[in-house]
Amino acid sequence: MPIEFDANGRIVVPKSTYIDPENVVFKCNWNDCGWKGICSKTAREYNVSKRREWCCHPKNPCSKMIENGEKGFPCLESELFVNFKMDPGANLKDETVGEERHIYGISPGKVAFLTTLSPEYTEKDRYFIGLLDIEKVHEDRYIIGNKETSVVIPPKIKILFWNYFKNKDESKKWSSGLFRKIGNETVLKILIDLKLEFNALSGYEKEKQNLDMLIKRYNEYITD
Length: 224
Fold this sequence. Notes:
alpha+beta, 7-stranded mixed beta sheet
């Protein structure tokens, strides 16, 4: 392709056709208290056996909290469906220990999906546990969902993450990092499938209404 110049003699840089996805999926540790409090001793032991970084970190207070019967939020997962917020964590190893991680390109009005693995499953069975209807993104780090329009997915619904996301090598493996980005079309597919699952259940009217609202929003994103 020949080099083009503008009227001032500067090189014209072609616009990229790639659009950075504005939605995010988080990898969350297992919590057997519905992500509304500190997990049990059994759940902690499971997370430690899987070498979850913060669960194994010496500064994590949850072991003593569990022993003493204390309440509180020693990790992101323990307050996930209380405060409806998530972030990409911090580096806990090597010379960058304590350095906060960031997420760029995520904006209010988009969705943050939350996934996990319970003890009876392996990575290929990673499933969605909820979604944050993003209300605020603070310092390109803290993802905060609207408490009224975010959706908690009940245990009876199991929609698998790897049905919608592919690694470049086609593997179903989530190694490093706590998040992955996805595009609007993929979000819409997940939302539609979630709504079908909720429709098969009695009740959950608020969740169904929230999903209808989000589906309408994402249809508009795609058709604009």
